[in-house]
Automatic annotation (TrEMBL):
Pfam families: FeS_assembly_P. It comes from Flavobacterium fluvii. Residues 13-85 form the MIP18 family-like domain. This is FeS assembly SUF system protein. InterPro entries: Fe-S_Maturation_MIP18 (IPR052339), FSCA_dom_sf (IPR034904), MIP18-like (IPR002744). Gene3D superfamilies: Fe-S cluster assembly (FSCA).
Length: 107
């Protein structure tokens, strides 16, 4: 039964969960900010998230990846979650969604 779970549907659930996590310095969720580069769900329901931070000296560099892992692991059927931080490419305002730019008065 468990193998019939749609990993694409799980991906949608993961994105929805990521949209509940906010950068503490910017009132926009981390997904709309463009901090999430990739979300991969294996057929074993293990999740790997490739993300960045707004800067290498980000004050939540330790806690934010842990929060992402914990929230993703709380989704039903997810067996595990791993976050990999990268700064390639470095984050820039160009990675923000139109919604985030509008929220921050940048449009």
């Amino acid at each position: 039964m468990e193998q019939s779970i749609d990993t694409n549907l799980l991906g949608t659930e993961i994105v929805a969960k990521l949209k509940t996590i906010y950068d503490p310095e910017i009132p926009v969720d981390i997904y709309e900010l463009g901090l999430i580069y990739d979300v991969m769900v294996s057929t074993d329901f293990e999740v790997k998230i490739l993300m960045t931070l707004t800067s290498p000296n980000c004050p939540v560099a330790e806690s934010l990846p842990r929060e992402v892992e914990e929230k993703v692991k709380s989704i039903e059927h997810i067996k595990g979650a791993e976050v990999e931080i990268t700064f390639d490419p470095p984050w820039s305002k160009d990675l923000m969604s139109e919604e985030a730019k509008l929220e921050l008065g940048m449009l």
